Amino acid sequence: MRRSSGGVLLTDDELLIGLASGSDAVLTQLYRRYFPMVLHFVTSNSGSEDDAKDIYQEVLVVLYEKVTHGSLELNCQLKTYLYSVGRRLWLKQLAQRNRHFINDTEAVVAVDDDLTDHEERNRQFDLMTDSLERLGEPCRTLLEDFYTRHLSMQDITEKFGYTNADNAKTQKYKCLQRLKRLFFSEYKQ
Amino acid sequence: METNDDQDIERALLAYGERIRFRQQLAQIHAGLNMESMREEAGLYRDETVQPGRIRTFWQTYRTTLAVAASVALLTTFGTIFLYRQYQQSHQQQQQYSLLRRDIQAIKSSQKQLLNDITGRSRALSVNPGQVAGTGFLLTADGYFITSNHIVQEADSIYVQSQKGEVYKARVVHSDKEHDLAILQLREDSAFQPLPTVPYSFDGRSSELGERVFTLGYPREEIVYGEGYLSSGTGYRGDTVAYQVAISVNPGNSGGPLLDERGNVIGIISAKQTTSEGVSFAVKTNYLFKALESIPSDSLKGIPLNLNRKNTLVHLPRKQQIKRMQSYVYQVKVFKHEK
């Protein structure tokens, strides 16, 4: 079954290391390798191909964030882990759609803790989206440019027309303080 | 604190950015996928895993149901085995019991034939074809009368016919299904003339085994005498309500008196065991007393029911005893709806 179209067939460990280091090639291979499994699972349990895509990408986000936080404890095959997480996520979707029966095609392991972590991170992510929304311009773009698009302070100084990088840094610091207030006022409740 | 928060918010921002970046990467990879080959591979999953998967899924979905079903199956199986063994153990007696019931049926059929004989003679008996007959006797000279409940149950009307052929209409005063006894009253038929005091008395004490006993009854149109001995203190299958009596009785004897040597009524003939010769059963007189006690006073309609305590048969020879008794033992004829 584990036929991969071209390229070297990486082991689970190699895949995980490659994933942690942000290798595009490894992620592509990983994506291709197990997508059919999730595609089959979701589509044979009253989901569409789009549902399968969403679920699978969510699964990979879970895996990626666990790997980059160094908190992944894999006691089974990577395939089983991915299936189990996907299964749980899809079950949750189905529950929201008032369906409860699923047909399993793979062995399942308990992934409750992983998903609790994931939900916590989802909450943070949503809260951050919301906080950035409320922060307004130019702070939002400035912070996004620096932290998510990884532009240098020099780039930012030029883009926003600040007189010098120090000025930009001060501005960024002020924005960060405001964001912090918005974010934690919600988050710490 | 301040710097901690600063680090936290920076970390949260970085994680936020990282996720956005990763998702974009995923979206890119997905866009570059050959969906056709993905679908093909997904199809291979179907082929490879559906078989065992279906069984496992079936198991996981229905295991509760299966567990319940299995328990029920187990219970049923062992229950059936248990019941079957019980049945086997009691089979012999079961058969006798059912025959015993048929015996009661036989009263009906034999008496139906009997009806053919009497049709011409009695106007009342010619009307209704569905009938049952048995025996009964007077409790008191003024018309209280005892017979077996199985004879008079579901009756539309009950007539009693004396040995001389006089027919009276009877009313059921009380029926005791449990002990198969029925108490009737004849006095409501104006033709009934109170008789001299009944010659026999009633003995509710337990009689000894081997006690010589006799009975009078109507297994056919004429009164028939039978004698035997008390063979057991309990009745059919250990029924403490009845005696077992070695006496020859036939359908139609039901409700007849069972008397000891001295002329005390010690029981009322109720049934016999068809699988053995001479095994009959009589309800103990003690239960007659109990039945009498349980009669609601308004059922008596003001006529007191006092049993005779003085036995005038004690010292008489058997032939005289029978002669004195004959006029107190009646044939009971019951008319029912044909079923």
From TrEMBL, chain A:
GO terms for molecular function: DNA binding; sigma factor activity. The keyword Plastid does not apply. The keyword DNA-binding applies. Residues 30-99 form the RNA polymerase sigma-70 region domain. InterPro entries: RNA_pol_sigma-70-like (IPR039425), RNA_pol_sigma-70_dom (IPR014284), RNA_pol_sigma70_r2 (IPR007627), RNA_pol_sigma_r2 (IPR013325), RNA_pol_sigma_r3/r4-like (IPR013324), WH-like_DNA-bd_sf (IPR036388). Keywords: DNA-binding, Sigma factor, Transcription, Transcription regulation. One of its GO terms (biological process) is DNA-templated transcription initiation. Belongs to the sigma-70 factor family. ECF subfamily. PANTHER family: RNA POLYMERASE ECF-TYPE SIGMA FACTO (PTHR43133), RNA POLYMERASE SIGMA FACTOR HI_1459-RELATED (PTHR43133:SF8). This is RNA polymerase, sigma-24 subunit, ECF subfamily. It comes from Fibrisoma limi BUZ 3.
TrEMBL record, chain B:
One of its GO terms (biological process) is proteolysis. The chain crosses the membrane at residues 64-84. One of its GO terms (molecular function) is serine-type endopeptidase activity. Keywords: Membrane, Transmembrane, Transmembrane helix. InterPro entries: Peptidase_S1_PA, Peptidase_S1C. Pfam families: Trypsin_2. This is Peptidase S1 and S6 chymotrypsin/Hap.
